[in-house]
Amino acid sequence: MKVNLFLLWLLFIAGQACAQTSEPTQKDDVRSSAQTAKDLVPLPSVKSLTPSQVSGKKLFVQRCSVCHLPALPSYSTYGPVLSSDLIIFLGDTFVHEQIMRGTSRMPGYQYTLTSTEIDQIAGYLKTLELTKKD
Known about the structure:
Elements: H1 2-21, H2 26-36, E1 39-40, H3 51-63, H4 65-68, H5 84-90, H6 92-101, H7 115-125, E2 131-132
Antiparallel strand pairs: 1-2
């Protein structure tokens, strides 16, 4: 019983120490994010997209963005950051097959997305412009 109380006290003290030393201000968060962000892909407005690309954007945000877009500028992604340059370089057929079949790190969507939906995602990906931040 004494050991359990000691461990709880120790965890409490350690938590208090961490809270006091690692509470950055919002301004610090923004500054550090901007300094460490290298690749950003701003999502285009729905107003600038065709109806097919809007459908592709919805599917991309639902299924793909968790791995292919950083949650914050300072985070890295699990999969490659996708942009129009990469999609055009790889080609429509390759991109379509990758989405359908998947890879060892990416699920395949052949059973959950139709061929048209995959084409919509690929069409939307061609609208993503990669910007470099220094």
